[in-house]
Structure formats: structure tokens, C-alpha cells
TrEMBL record:
Residues 1-13 have a biased composition (Polar residues). Belongs to the FBXL7 family. One of its GO terms (cellular component) is SCF ubiquitin ligase complex. SMART domains: FBOX, LRR_CC. Residues 69-115 form the F-box domain. It comes from Panurus biarmicus. GO terms for biological process: cell division; protein polyubiquitination; SCF-dependent proteasomal ubiquitin-dependent protein catabolic process. Pathway: Protein modification; protein ubiquitination. Keywords: Cell cycle, Cell division, Cytoplasm, Cytoskeleton, Leucine-rich repeat, Mitosis, Repeat, Ubl conjugation pathway. Part of the SCF (SKP1-CUL1-F-box) E3 ubiquitin-protein ligase complex SCF(FBXL7) composed of CUL1, SKP1, RBX1 and FBXL7. Interacts with AURKA; interaction takes place during mitosis but not in interphase. Interacts with BIRC5; this interaction allows BIRC5 to be polyubiquitinated by the SCF(FBXL7) E3 ubiquitin-protein ligase complex. Gene3D superfamilies: Ribonuclease Inhibitor. PANTHER family: F-BOX_LRR-REPEAT PROTEIN 7, PARTNER OF PAIRED, ISOFORM B-RELATED. This is F-box/LRR-repeat protein 7. InterPro entries: F-box-like_dom_sf, F-box_dom, FBXL15_LRR, Leu-rich_rpt_Cys-con_subtyp, LRR_dom_sf.
Length: 449
């Protein structure tokens, strides 16, 4: 047993990720390094490479017909690699146990640009350690090919797993750890400090993450230009409830290349935080501050400084935003394509009019639950925004069938219309369907089908 353990450790083979009660777990050999003591969890096990032939004296030799080569084995290596490229991480590891040829093909570096692990019970820290150790076999301590790591929803991921990624994957470009609420700022700091090419970071639902910055050692080493060293362009911090204006200030100062930023339900963010953001991050194209209840018209004034660069804006359920804030956006952000203002009850027909006349290339608009918007506002939309494809008017109490007919008669490319909980007639819905052939209508009128 000790010889087997030493051989397995010195020659790492595929990391096999599956539940212990599966058939593969019962038949596995050489698993002395696996952590199989926890019942019902998914673990990562290390196995020695598959033998080229069966040598056990109790195993009967196969017949001549059975020894004939299988059809799939007649495929050339490049075709097999192409097939393997469609497999998820755990299935690719299973394939590596079939035979020695499959083992060599499954660990082709071209197949390991991405690691994707999912599941609440998976032992992610161990799985990442085993996988990176195997991928570092040809290039000691460095995974040169690995560019994407997605471990969303893996609640057992801890800082230890992120430390492994930071130390072994200097070429990492994309990291998604959404829903992994056990990771902290320190581990995230290590990743952004040791992975200089990181462009896409998703830490949504990670409630302990309050900031994105370099480690102190990296800051000292790169000072005074360290603020420009983080190359993140896409940052999703949805549901990071503890994020405050000071943390957003630090993020903006260090991540000056941001183009996509999502702060949904970051309830402590205020207009002051948005002011910091606009000072440093002048290239933002997409921004979401939905459910940030302290953001007001003053925040819209700051966001309007992005001018024509802003294409996507979500301010849903920001109750302090009124027509004044909408006028700021409409006046300066003329190339806006998407606006979600659902639940902003201070928006009226005047705000919609100003928006329609200045943002004529608008393609998607959500003004649901805005009770002060009526058919008058829809008429301004219909006469100015001919490219409108998606329109949500859910729970707009002042909307009638007349306003819908005006929209349908002018916006022929309409593809989605939401009029749930609106008092509109069946005739109006049929009129929309007749003029907008490809439009999907979401409604609550049982007479229309």
C-alpha cells in the first residue's frame, strides 16, 4: 500500500470528480490520496495512469473479436481532441481513465484552457489543487494554457482554492466565483495581483468581498503606477451587500479600464460612490445600479459624464430617481441602447418624452411599474424610437390599448412586449400582433391567445 501511495503521488494522473457513491468510485484503484471520508460529497481523486493491458491472473483474456479495435479508436488524434473539447471538466477526467491513449489525449494542453466546476457539495479546493498539479507537470508550478476558471455556485470554495489559482495560473483571463460566499478580500487581492492579464471577474453573491485591489506587496512594488496595473474590464459585484462608497472608490482607482460594471443590490452605494467611479473609470459602456436605493438624480448627473460611451444602464427600483435624472442621461448619453427604469415611480411622460427625442437609437426600454407614464409617453416613443425591439410596460396603470396601437404602427421591429397587469383590450393586442409579426406579447388577458 505504501508503494502504491508513493507511486500515485510522484506521478499524478487525472483528477476524477464525481460523487463517492457512483460506480466509478467503487471501482477506482490507487485512490489513497483521495479525501473519501466525507459521505455524500463530491471529491477529487488522484489515480495512476491506466495500464496498456490487463495483467491480473484472474482476468480471462478477451476473445479475438473483443480485441478488435473499436470504431472510435480508429479516429485520428486531432478528431478525438475535437470531440473531447466539448466535454465538461469532470467528464474529461473520466475519459482519461479509459486507456493510455485517451489518457494522453485528455491531458492535451489545448483542452485545458477552461476549468468549469459546479455543485454545492463539490470539494473545490482539493479539485483545483489536483487539476493544477497535473496541468503543471510539463511546466513546473505554472499552468501556461489555463485562461478561464468557472466555479460558480460552489459554496465550499475557500480562500485556499483561490490561492492555488493565483499561484499557478499567471495567464488567467476570466474568473467566475459567483455564489461562493466563503472567499474574502485577501484571496481576491492575490488573484488580481498575480494574474496581470485578468479581464473578467465575477464575484456576485460573495458577501465578504468589499473591495478589489492589489496586495500591499504588489502595491509597493508597482508604486506609483500600481493603480493602472489591474486590467479588469468586466466586473460583476451583484449582491455584494457590504460594498460601500469607500470600497467603490478603491475599485475605481485600481480598475481604470472597466467597461462593464454591475452593482445590483449593493444597497450601501450612494451618489458619492458614483462620483468616485466617474473620476477614474471613463470608459464604462454598461452599468447597473439596480436596487441601490440611495442613488438619486445626483447620481444620474455623475453617470451622464460617460456621455456617448454609455450603451447600457439599469436603474431599476431606484426610487429616488425622477424625470430630472432621466433628463441628464438623455441629454448627454445620446447613444444609449438599453435602459431599465422599472419601479422608478418618479418618472412621468415628460421624462419619457425627453428620452425618446434624444436617445433615438434606443432598442430596449423597461418602464414597468411607473404609474405616471401614460399613452402620451408611448406616443413620443413611437414617433422617435423606430428601432425599438423590447418594451416592458408591466403594471403601468395609465397605459391603454390606444398607446399600444401607436407603438405597433411605428415600431415594426418590436420583438417583445410586456403588458402584464395592464388594462388593454384584446383588439389592441391583436393589432400589435398583426403589425409586429415577430413580437412575443407577455400579457395577463385570458381572452387573448
Amino acid at each position: 500500500d505504501s508503494d502504491l501511495s508513493m507511486r500515485t503521488l510522484s506521478t499524478p494522473s487525472p483528477a476524477l470528480i464525481f460523487p463517492p457513491n457512483s460506480p466509478g468510485f467503487q471501482n477506482g484503484r490507487g485512490s489513497s490520496t483521495s479525501s473519501s471520508s466525507v459521505t455524500g460529497e463530491t471529491v477529487a481523486m488522484v489515480h495512476s495512469p491506466p495500464p496498456t493491458r490487463l495483467t491480473h491472473p484472474l482476468i480471462r483474456l478477451a476473445s479475438k473479436h473483443q480485441r478488435e479495435q473499436a470504431n472510435i479508436d480508429r479516429l485520428p488524434d486531432h478528431s478525438m481532441i475535437q470531440i473531447f473539447s466539448f466535454l465538461p471538466t469532470n467528464q474529461l477526467c473520466r475519459c482519461a481513465r479509459v486507456c493510455r491513449r485517451w489518457y494522453n489525449l485528455a491531458w492535451d494542453p489545448r483542452l485545458w484552457r477552461t476549468i468549469r466546476l459546479t455543485g454545492e457539495t463539490i470539494n473545490v479546493d482539493r479539485a483545483l489543487k489536483v487539476l493544477t498539479r497535473r496541468l503543471c507537470q510539463d511546466t513546473p508550478n505554472v499552468c501556461l494554457m489555463l485562461e478561464t476558471v468557472i466555479v460558480s455556485g460552489c459554496r465550499r470554495l475557500t480562500d485556499r482554492g483561490l490561492y492555488t489559482i493565483a499561484q499557478c495560473c499567471p495567464e488567467l483571463r476570466r474568473l467566475e466565483v459567483s455564489g461562493c460566499y466563503n472567499i474574502s478580500n485577501e484571496a481576491v487581492f492575490d488573484v488580481v495581483s498575480l494574474c496581470p492579464n485578468l479581464e473578467h471577474l465575477d464575484v456576485s453573491g460573495c458577501s465578504k468581498v468589499t473591495c478589489i485591489s492589489l496586495t500591499r506587496e504588489a502595491s509597493i512594488k508597482l508604486s506609483p503606477l500600481h493603480g493602472k496595473q489591474i486590467s479588469i474590464r468586466y466586473l460583476d459585484m451583484t449582491d455584494c451587500f457590504v460594498l460601500e462608497d469607500e470600497g467603490l472608490h478603491t475599485i475605481a482607482a485600481h480598475c481604470t479600464q472597466l467597461t462593464h460594471l454591475y452593482l445590483r443590490r449593493c444597497v450601501r452605494i450612494t451618489d458619492e460612490g458614483l462620483r468616485y467611479l466617474m473620476i477614474y473609470c471613463t470608459s464604462i459602456k454598461e452599468l447597473s445600479v439596480s436596487d441601490c436605493r440611495f442613488v438619486s438624480d445626483f447620481g444620474m448627473r455623475e453617470i451622464a459624464k460617460l456621455e456617448s460611451r454609455l450603451r447600457y444602464l439599469s436603474i431599476a427600483h431606484c426610487g429616488r430617481i425622477t424625470d430630472v435624472g432621466i433628463r441628464y442621461i438623455a441629454k448627454y448619453c445620446s447613444k444609449l441602447r438599453y435602459l431599465n427604469a422599472r419601479g422608478c415611480e418618479g418618472i412621468t411622460d415628460h421624462g419619457v418624452e425627453y428620452l425618446a427625442k434624444n436617445c433615438t437609437k434606443l432598442k430596449s426600454l423597461d418602464i414597468g411599474k411607473c404609474p405616471l407614464v401614460s399613452d402620451t409617453g408611448l406616443e413620443f416613443l413611437a414617433l422617435n424610437c423606430f428601432n425599438l425591439k423590447r418594451l416592458s410596460l408591466k403594471s403601468c396603470e395609465s397605459i391603454t390599448g390606444q398607446g399600444l396601437q401607436i407603438v405597433a404602427a411605428n415600431c415594426f421591429d418590436l420583438q417583445m412586449l410586456n403588458v402584464q397587469d395592464c388594462e388593454v383590450s384584446v383588439d389592441a393586442l391583436r393589432f400589435v400582433k398583426r403589425h409586429c409579426k415577430r413580437c412575443i406579447i407577455e400579457h395577463t388577458n385570458p381572452a387573448f391567445f
